From TrEMBL:
Annotated organism of origin: Candidatus Nucleicultrix amoebiphila FS5
Annotated ranges, domain Methyltransferase: 24-143
Upper classification of the organism: Bacteria, Pseudomonadati, Pseudomonadota, Alphaproteobacteria, Holosporales
Cited Pfam families: Methyltransf_31
Cross-referenced InterPro entries: Methyltranfer_dom, SAM-dependent_MTases_sf
Superkingdom classification of source: Bacteria
Name of the protein: Methyltransferase domain-containing protein
Gene3D superfamilies cross-referenced by the UniProt entry: Vaccinia Virus protein VP39 (3.40.50.150)
Length: 225
């Protein structure tokens, strides 16, 4: 992965952060570790730790990027002195939490690793068609041939107001976001014809007065920002 491989929403939100050589970054669902390489080339980030449940991905990451630390396991169960709570300047989850059936637990685990004043940056999918306090039944087939067959994974689609309600429980000091409408993946089984693909940067408080700075479509029904 290089910087050019990022989606516009991801680039925009990373650019809002003050990343540098001293920044400590944790990547939840790191795959083969390409994010570390991209952040190094763009922001000179050297302190990068990646976690993934897939052994083959971690083995590949260790071969490709021996300068970084990679841990194999489920972030909900993993205990390691290399990933202390309240430590990281930036915790990233791109295409991980929004694919996980344990969404709420994953969200809490990720926020626990962020130090006060640090940032959790993650991708989310929003829809106006999803009523508040309801749950999407969407899922996606995992294959590279765009076929509706094989292994399935949750395709988490959220009501934006539900998510912001959850995030405010962590008492963040700020939430920035950028999103745009697009079509669901060809391998996704979902009732929604369009999805607002969004990346949020949540600054850890605690703070009772969260500052919102959201660049979302005008027709997305969101009561925040």
């Amino acid at each position: 992965m290089t910087w050019d491989d990022f989606y516009p929403s991801e680039k925009k939100m990373f650019e809002t952060l003050e990343l540098n050589r001293q920044s400590c970054v944790l990547d939840v669902g790191c795959g083969c570790g390409g994010l570390g390489n991209a952040l190094d080339s763009r922001f000179n980030v050297k302190n990068y730790v990646g976690i993934d449940i897939n052994k083959k991905a971690i083995d590949t990451a260790r071969k490709l990027f021996a300068q970084y630390t990679f841990l194999e396991g489920d972030v909900l169960d993993l205990k390691s002195p290399e990933i202390p709570n309240n430590y990281f300047d930036l915790v990233v989850s791109l295409g991980c939490i929004d694919w996980n059936v344990e969404f709420d637990k994953m969200l809490e685990a990720a926020m626990n690793y962020v130090k006060p004043g640090g940032v959790f940056l993650s991708s989310f999918r929003f829809s106006n068609e999803l009523e508040k306090h309801s749950q999407s039944k969407s899922y996606q087939y995992i294959n590279f041939q765009n076929q509706h067959e094989g292994e399935q994974a949750p395709y988490i689609v959220l009501n934006p107001n539900d998510l912001f309600d959850k995030l405010l429980q962590f008492k963040p000091s700020a939430i920035k976001g950028y999103g745009y409408w697009g079509s669901p993946s060809k391998t996704a089984i979902t009732p929604y014809e369009k999805i607002c693909f969004t990346v949020l940067a949540i600054t850890k408080g605690p703070d009772d007065q969260c500052q919102f700075n959201l660049e979302l479509p005008n027709d997305l029904v969101c009561h925040y920002g």
